[in-house]
Amino acid sequence: MKKLNMLYTGLVIAATMGSAQAQMRIEISGVGSNQIPVAVAGFANEGVSPQKISEIIKADLERSGAFKIIDAGVINDVNNIDYSAWKAKGADALVVGTVDALADGRYDVRYKLLDTVKQSKLSNLDKAVTAQFTRLSAHLIADDVFFKLTGIKGAFSTRIAYVKQEGRNYQLLVADADGENEQLALRSNEPIISPSWSPDGTKVAYVSFEQKKPVVYVQNLITRARTVVANEKGSNSAPAWAPNGNKLAVALSKDGHTQVYTVNADGSNLRRASNSTGIDTEPQWSADGQSIYFTSDRSGGPQIYRMNPDGSDAKRVTFGGSYNISPRISADGKTLAYISRRDGNFQLFVLDLASGQEQRLSDTTDDESPSFAPNGKYIMYATRAGGRKSLAVVSVDGRVKQRLTAQAGNIKEPTWGPFMQ
Question: Are 319 and 170 found together in one domain?
Answer without folding.
Answer: yes
